[in-house]
Amino acid sequence: MHEQPPKILIAEDEIVFRQFLKEVLEEEGYYVTEAMDGETAIGLLQTQVFDLVITDISMPKATGIEVLRFAKQTDSSIEVIIMTANGRLETAVEALRLGAYDYILKPFEDMELVFRIVRRTLERQLLKRENQNLVNELIEKNKELEDINRSYRAIHDETTALYHLGKAINSTLNLDEVLSLLVKSIFELTNPAKSLLLLFDNEKSLLYGNKSVGLDESKFMEFEIPLDEKWIANNPIWYLNFHEIPPILTRLREELGIIHFIHAPLTMRDQIYGILIAAYETQEAISSREHNLLMQFASHGAIACENAKLHQLTEELSIRDGLTGAYNHRFFQERLNQELSRAKRYHEP
């Protein structure tokens, strides 16, 4: 049953009896170590691994009960057999209550009985360890399943968030609403310390604070930095420490307290709309998952900005003549309706 001979520790202060027991057990194929007292047995249990401990109840320096307790505390799978004289059965019963598997009365009258007890005890010990190994394997498999389920849940959450973001882009022309959802989704899915969106002002050629989670909103809305096309690339960029960051971006740290972050530009048809940033407390929190998500959300954000731009252009074309720039009939109708509404509100004739 064992690949190697089972290891047995004999704790017995009577040298003749101890050596006799060692010899007969070695003849049965076991690997046997001796301890001349309880203290020595406890020391051996601290440094070596045993399958079975056979200990006398009464020994100097430490009793068999103390050896039993220490063995069970060290490794609960270790089996213990107590040896006791006829007059100490009560102590043997106490040892069984504390976890000993069996007891043997001294002096031995039937060595075959001793061998049977030893074999039965070692078989039980082997079964216990095999069961524990199976339990450990089951625990590991459950952990693997939990990791897989966690990954599936993360994928589901990401897909759902992207779906709702895409739906919002297609169902509303309210750019502010879509961008708020964009920044909030990044914060919920990638667990950064802060998420923020800087939009690009074409006239001033700078980026300004638009939406954020985890920042002082009033302070962020006043934040502006000039555009530097070296770091507005088509792919997300990781900045894990400020030795890598262009000097212009050090203001993120100085004014907004951002240390480790990744960002992705919102670009479409060579038009820069802004950058999306996810900031983290430590660089270990940043993985390829966060990288890929940021890229997808930045792409959706660029689509939303493009849609808003096209809608604004359509509105302008609907009220102005494309060739002359003059206001058309719809413009005057809208102005008339506005004036009628104002007159009605103030009871003007």
Task: Characterize the structure shown.
The protein is α/β, with parallel strands linked by helices. It has 2 domains: 7-134, Response regulator (Rossmann fold, 3-Layer(aba) Sandwich); 172-319, GAF domain (Beta-Lactamase, 2-Layer Sandwich), CATH 3.30.450.40. The protein has helices at 15-27, 38-47, 64-74, 89-97, 111-171, 175-190, 217-221, 250-256, 288-319, 329-345; strands spanning 7-11, 31-35, 52-56, 79-85, 102-106, 194-201, 206-213, 224-226, 237-239, 260-268, 271-280. The strands form 2 sheets. A 6-stranded antiparallel β-sheet has the order 8-7-6-11-10-9. A 5-stranded parallel β-sheet has the order 2-1-3-4-5, with helices on both faces. Helix 2 (38-47) packs parallel to helix 3 (64-74), helix 5 (111-171) runs parallel beside helix 9 and helix 6 runs antiparallel to helix 9. The protein starts with 6 loop residues before the first strand and ends with a helix.
Attribute tags:
Beta-Lactamase, 349 residues, rod-shaped, single chain, Rossmann fold, alpha/beta
Give me the secondary-structure topology.
Elements: E1 7-11, H1 15-27, E2 31-35, H2 38-47, E3 52-56, H3 64-74, E4 79-85, H4 89-97, E5 102-106, H5 111-171, H6 175-190, E6 194-201, E7 206-213, H7 217-221, E8 224-226, E9 237-239, H8 250-256, E10 260-268, E11 271-280, H9 288-319, H10 329-345
Parallel strand pairs: 1-2, 1-3, 3-4, 4-5
Antiparallel strand pairs: 6-7, 6-11, 7-8, 9-10, 10-11
Helix pairs in contact: 2-3, 5-6, 5-9, 6-9
Number of structural domains: 2
Order of helices and strands: EHEHEHEHEHHEEHEEHEEHH
Tally of strands: 11
CATH class of the largest domain: Alpha Beta
Share in helix: 40-55%
Name of the CATH superfamily of the largest domain: GAF domain
Structural class: alpha/beta
The second-level CATH architecture of the largest domain is: 2-Layer Sandwich
**Measured on Cα atoms, how large is the radius of gyration?**
39 Å
Mean pLDDT: 78
Tell me what portion of residues adopts beta-strand conformation. Answer: 15-25%
Label the overall shape.
rod-shaped
Describe the strand arrangement of the main beta sheet, using strand numbers.
8-7-6-11-10-9
CATH fold naming of the largest domain: Beta-Lactamase
Low-confidence stretches: none
Number of helices, where a helix is a run of at least 4 consecutive DSSP H or I residues: 10
Distance between the termini: 107 Å
* Main sheet properties: 6 strands, antiparallel
GO biological process, one term: regulation of DNA-templated transcription
Keywords: Coiled coil, DNA-binding, Phosphoprotein, Transcription, Transcription regulation, Two-component regulatory system
Coiled coil: 124-155
Modified residues (4-aspartylphosphate): 56
